[in-house]
Amino acid sequence: MRIFTASLATETNTFSPMYTDLDSFYQCFYAPPGQHPATPTLCSAPLVACRELSATDSSIEVIEGSCAWAEPGGLLNRQSYEHLRDEILTQLRAALPVQAVVLGLHGAMVAQGYDDCEGDLLSRVRQIAGDKVVIAATLDPHSHLTAQRLNNANLLIAFKEFPHLDFMQRARELVTLSVATVRGQYQPVMRSFDCRMIDVLPTSREPMRSFIDKLSLLEGQNDILSISVIHGFMAGDVAEMGTQLLVISNNQPQRAAELAEQLGMELFSFRGKTLPAFATIDTALDDATMIAGPVVLADVWDNPGGGVAGDGTLILAEIIRRGISKVAVGTIWDPMAVKLCFAAGEGASIILRFGGKSCATAGDPIDAQVTVQRLQRNAVQYFAGSEVPMGDCAVISFAGIDVILNSNRCQSFDPSLFTALQLEPQQYQLLLVKSTNHFYQGFAPLAAKIIYVDAGAPYPSDPVRNGYRKLRRPLWPIVESPFA
Ligand SMILES: [Zn+2]
């Protein structure tokens, strides 16, 4: 059995000014055939799962294509998308004949002229590979589920967890199901249900925790092969944006459709109840200074993982104004300031302007007399075993505040982002991180308290006000009763 595998993924915030091009992929993660490291990345895990399986089953031959991932950002330019897509399609043509194509996708990639990049890619893969080949892909739940994707793939599986700690597990499932399908053990049929809502659905807390556990228990019974929740991605202005429930059955289309609707309506009943209470900047700082630290403040709407810059200063400016010390900030994206710090050298005391440069809403640049505390080329943090490059980084210190400036945009996944720069997270009263929920598992063990802070910008976090132009159907909360 010959399996072709590749990965092309990013998450496009169509409201973001951080446009995405080939360099965004090359800088973040790019592995040509045979060059993928042993460790998986979030979206390239199927390749690693294919390698694992072929190592234990000599009847399986894996043909590797390219894998590319760019940090979430704004619209991908057309030429860059077509270049990466055609690279993979050319590799696929050269690999024929194959019995399965297993892809690591994200599902919220939007390029100029392509509102549904993954649908476009899957339909071209189908044209090249033919009707008999099993086409399978992993998806991030923060994606759009389109008819074009369902029509051209046999198996689509989204990560169940948010934080997405289960990406390797889902990739293994996908590869196992693909192989079983090629061997004739299953005839997968996918059915989806449109929940007509968009919300943020962390699974680290109720009601989503129990819901996801229930889905896992339903799998493997009554010919149900897989159940995925597509949370949707509210920062993508495309026609099919929104939450969907996806069920794959073994040749039981009606059962799959009924289960998708039943679970989808249960999910609809959770709307508006899934997020923890977000604090304002003022209440967060009041609370955070009342108890012994470290208190973790999550700047939920300046999360580069959602495609914004990650150079916002709204919370830090208030920390400075209040004179709070023993603070570590991880991170503020500012490659220009990093360059200046490298030029000044470790130990230098300089006047530096940093942060607040990418957009009008996320705060002003901060001007301070700082000490360049530490410089680190190619710093790396870790997320569930995968390496996340932070690029060249500088730690600057002033008024009891240590700020990590990074040159690769990335969200704050894990305390390793501080230790990579030799900052000891336990020694601070406040740790300010930029993440919506991926930080949670990593930071919970060391945090005296975790506070989610709603600074109001720059992520388009309010669907009612986002002004979608391409959305085609009623969705809660834009419409109160979308099924009426
Ligand atoms: Zn996601």
From TrEMBL:
Swiss-Prot/TrEMBL cofactor(s): Zn(2+)
Highest rank taxon of the organism: Bacteria
Ranges where the Microcystin LR degradation protein MlrC N-terminal domain occurs: 2-288
Manner of cofactor binding, per the entry note: Binds 1 zinc ion per subunit.
Record-linked InterPro entries: MlrC, MlrC_C, MlrC_N
Domain Microcystin LR degradation protein MlrC C-terminal as annotated: residue spans: 297-470
Entry keyword set: Hydrolase, Metal-binding, Metalloprotease, Protease
Function, as annotated: Involved in peptidolytic degradation of cyclic heptapeptide hepatotoxin microcystin (MC).
UniProt record similarity statement: Belongs to the peptidase M81 family.
Protein name (record): Microcystinase C
